[in-house]
Design goal:
Length: about 325
């Protein structure tokens, strides 16, 4: 696998907007403050033409122009790493306009973004055999003061820090158009729920999962992203997931997954889809993040059994 070089002191950070741009508040001011922060740290910044655009539907501009910006900036030797300007809704429509041959043949570059950016962080791994970082987008780096998770994410781009859990998380943001630089509203305690195999079911091929308070240690190749985006890609001409799994089968895989717009029923259907598309072959474990539909229940289905039941049978 191709691993990019880390950002060095005085290096250049490139910014692109293949999903949402920073054309409205609070993102505009937060992004401006992030740029000032990076420049005060001694880094140069280079902005793509769509960073402040809002011309597209669900993305910053037309799919063609978003694709062109990403192609040009990824292959541009003047920028050392790329940070996405935001998540969004329809970056999947940009994917056909990404020049994957050009990406594969260019020098690898760290790309960091989350949510809709799964369309690049996942596919650049699968199609270009290149590591990427699933992490915060550019405006988040404009908060005052900067949260430890943001400091750690930026340190990762410099090859300095391993990421760990944090004691608190934000349920309701206080950031709005009039207060664009507010930090995370850390009100909720971190909790971890661990499910491990607990014996055979009556079905000869299955394992039952039970929750345990004990932590577990797993090793494997880490892949994943936003499930909303992943299931949209599954079965398309861009889906070469099974080929990637076969290439690195000796490593085994740890899937990190989170859901945004999906309800518990949507989540269960999505995991069914990915499993029976063969994506969970050689899986060693799952790291599943807190969904946006955090407290919803539907007909006895919640955020836990929406995913744990569908993964209980061996995926090999």
């Amino acid at each position: 696998m191709r691993y990019p070089e880390f950002l060095t002191p005085g290096g250049t950070i490139g910014f692109v907007a293949p999903s949402f741009g920073c054309n409205i508040e609070p993102y505009h001011s937060a992004f401006r403050n992030a740029l000032s922060r990076f420049e005060s740290m001694g880094f140069r910044t280079k902005l793509g033409p769509n960073c402040f655009a809002g011309e597209g539907i669900g993305i910053s501009n037309t799919p063609e122009l978003c694709g062109k910006e990403l192609n040009d900036f990824y292959c541009d030797p003047e920028s050392d790493v790329l940070i996405s300007c935001g998540g969004g809704e329809l970056m999947c429509e940009v994917v056909p306009h990404i020049d994957w041959d050009r990406i594969r043949s260019s020098k690898p570059k760290w790309y960091i973004g989350y949510s809709d950016n799964t369309n690049f962080t996942f596919l650049s791994t699968i199609l270009a055999d290149t590591a990427a970082i699933y992490g915060p987008c550019a405006p988040s780096f404009g908060m005052e003061p900067l949260a430890p998770s943001l400091s750690d994410a930026f340190s990762m781009l410099q090859g300095k820090t391993d990421v760990s859990n944090y004691p608190k998380w934000e349920l309701e943001s206080l950031k709005d158009e009039e207060h664009p630089l507010l930090p995370y509203n850390m009100t909720e305690d971190y909790q971890q729920h661990v499910y491990v195999p607990a014996g055979k079911t009556e079905e000869s091929t299955g394992n039952v999962l039970q929750e345990t308070a004990d932590s577990v240690t797993l090793e494997g190749r880490l892949i994943g992203g936003c499930v909303d985006c992943l299931v949209t890609l599954a079965g398309t001409e861009f889906d070469q997931t099974k080929e990637f799994l076969e290439k690195y089968q000796s490593d085994g895989f740890l899937w990190f997954l989170e859901c945004c717009d999906l309800t518990p029923m949507d989540m269960r259907r999505a995991f069914f889809n990915m499993k029976h598309a063969g994506w969970f072959k050689y899986v060693k474990g799952f790291l599943i993040g807190r969904p946006l539909h955090f407290q919803e229940e539907m007909l006895g289905l919640d955020r836990f059994n929406a995913v744990s039941v569908i993964c209980r049978r061996r995926c090999r």
